[in-house]
Model the fold of this input.
Amino acid sequence: MSDNQPFGMPDQLRDLAEKNVEQGRAAYAQFMDAMMKASSMWLGALPANEMTSGFKSVQDRSVSFAKQNAEAAFSAASELATARDIQDVISIQSRYAQTQMQAYALQAQEIGRLMTMAAQHMQPKTK
Done:
């Protein structure tokens, strides 16, 4: 069996896989919108102060990262649905893993920085 031999998947099945990825992407977008509305309502019910302001920036950035990570996963799934051979699959998965590991490291640093800033605002100021 050659490494470049095409998968034995019919085009109809590939099309179905691509449609499923798009439906998953749309459902996830609806879920994220609902979650953002709910958390905004919850946060809006709290008294406005430096603590909620710091928490809001962490929340906003976390949601942004979740959306970026989901989009990257959906893009990788779309690519996988059109992969023509095992080499393609390995390349797509490897590229996705490397890119996401770098993204996760940067995201963790950013969230850590925002958490530190939020915690500093919570501490009483000394004269």
